[in-house]
Design a protein that fits this description.
The protein is built from 5 helices and no strands. The chain is elongated, with a radius of gyration of 22 Å.
Length: 211
């Protein structure tokens, strides 16, 4: 039905290098960066699991479409399996969302302590990072809502496929709704990836200021 959504990885290597830097005036800032790194690693794990489930979902969808109404019993079976996969995806997107929210809270901690950093260049660079991170998290919130809506639309489709009297027109209408939602999701995901790449670049610059 659609390709698995791919997201850029949030670099965490700098966080380990920062621990040897004495330029930070406030331990809360360093601790917050370290926690963000751990949260983002967890997000990557959820993304990998979601990608795997999405691929399985697409495979089931292709099989369902190949069977058609002539093998209705098989279509019902595969539709039920698809609904189970959707439930699994929903669990992982919820875990991802909660983890992102935890990371977002750490950004708030950093903001509260930026003025306590001794070096002006470091303060300026941390501010850049915070601004990009906030835009990234805001974009993720939009991404999350669109993904949840996509799951809802897919549930409706696989429920329809278990109805022997559903018309081709009804199915096509639902598929069109899913495709439109997916297009919007891809657009938002691209924006999310752009912010992630920008953040990673600024993070490297911050390390260059620190060392």
């Amino acid at each position: 039905m659609f390709k698995a959504i791919k997201r850029c990885v949030w670099l965490t290597v700098v966080l380990f290098l920062v621990t040897s830097c004495n330029e930070l005036a406030n331990e809360e800032v360093l601790s917050a960066f370290q926690k963000i790194g751990k949260y983002e690693n967890s997000v990557v794990e959820q993304q990998e699991k979601l990608s795997g489930l999405e691929q399985k979902q697409n495979q089931l969808y292709d099989r369902i479409m190949s069977y058609g109404i002539k093998r209705f019993t098989k279509v019902v079976q595969l539709s039920k399996e698809s609904l189970e996969l959707i439930e699994e995806r929903d669990k992982h997107i919820e875990k991802e969302y909660k983890t992102i929210q935890s990371a977002k809270q750490q950004i708030n901690t950093i903001k509260k302590n930026i003025d306590q950093l001794r070096d002006e260049n470091i303060r300026r660079q941390v501010n850049r990072l915070v601004n990009i991170a906030e835009k990234r998290y805001e974009t993720y919130g939009n991404l999350y809502l669109h993904y949840k809506e996509l799951l809802s639309l897919e549930k409706e489709l696989y429920t329809l496929l278990q109805n022997k009297y559903v018309t081709p027109e009804q199915l096509q209408q639902q598929i069109n709704r899913i495709n439109e939602q997916y297009k919007e999701l891809v657009s938002i995901n691209d924006q999310f990836n752009e912010y992630t790449e920008k953040y990673n670049k600024e993070k490297k610059r911050l390390y260059n200021v620190w060392k």
